[in-house]
Predict the structure.
Amino acid sequence: MIVLVINCGSSSLKYKVFDMSRDAALADGVADRVAVGAGDKAILKHRPVGKPEYLAEEPMPDHTAAMGLVLEALVSPEHGVIDSLQEIAAVGHRVVHGAERFSESVMINSDVIDAIEECAELAPLHNPANLQGIRACTQSLPGVPQIAVFDTAFHQTMPEWAYLYGLPYEYYLDKGIRRYGFHGTSHRYVSMQAGEWLAEQRGIPVEQQRVVTCHLGNGSSMAAVKGGRSVDTTMGLTPLEGLLMGTRCGDLDPAIVPSLMEQMNVGAREVDRILNKNSGLLGISGVSSDMRDVKAAAEAGNPRAAAAIDVFCYRIIKYVGSYAAALGGVDALVFTAGIGENEPLVRERVCRNLAFLGLSIAPEANQSVDKTRAVSDISGRGASSSVLVIPTNEELTIARDTMEIVSKVAAS
């Protein structure tokens, strides 16, 4: 079965194609600068496995036009990976917010589209863009089944005490104000990989496992996973809550918001922009939102860059401690995503203060993680808990969900 995975942004369309008979990626790419303005040309970067990268600069006035160019690239004699569009058996879509409506992936129909539109109030920058991708596929691949995989779904197992805010309860009932969490597809994938590893290598049954997952990238979040189910996560109503991130502030005294509005004489929208776009690593360091640049600046003696790394790591340490308390211990601490997979300094700094939980790192293993391995154990000798580096694969998770749902429908 050939599955096309789509991750649609307001001005981009990312995709990956899988042959699910062998869980193998055939191609991936991105159309950038979609619908940015009349006369502007967008760029398609198409990366077929085993063939040279293909670049195309074409007008893409909307996502349907972008999808058309993507499909042309997939069947091209020169840089294509399939012979015909009829080979595409299904499309899986990343959808950011499913609120309480969706706790698992679903086949897309008119009711699901209506529900995604209703959830757009909670994710106004993401859900409308995700819907554009769904509609573009409906036009370009008529009759091909489409599946929605929600970022929030994995965290729908959180208990009430973990997702409620200390606000009037009516705000939750009437306005849906609660903690939802994000990066759920990534947390689900790496916690499942860690679960299989813990069962095989340490003999801990899945139902007894206590895993803390750290998805650390430009957007960062953590999850406490007990028996394979999310019981807490750092992001909340929006992706702003929790850890320090590339440009997001993370946890914040809410009184700061009206204080900034008053002192700077700006509205709520401007403060929201500052907290989401001008804060985090960028805001503290004054250098960059990219950990690599911040680390280089810190090594060159920039005190603000050093402070940004300190805050970034300290927030993670605090959450590991709180999640260890919530879980009753930790069997594995998992690092994933851009920073988690690639930055030994962050992993070492985080685990340096966690020996009391039985967590420690082997310096050599930490410095030489093999990204081709499904799971890399970098635990120190004699550690009672495991420290693992697991490359995330959200696209493969979406493709697997898509294949499973389509296969069930076909068999019924």
About this structure: The mean pLDDT is 95. The first helix runs from residue 63 to 75.
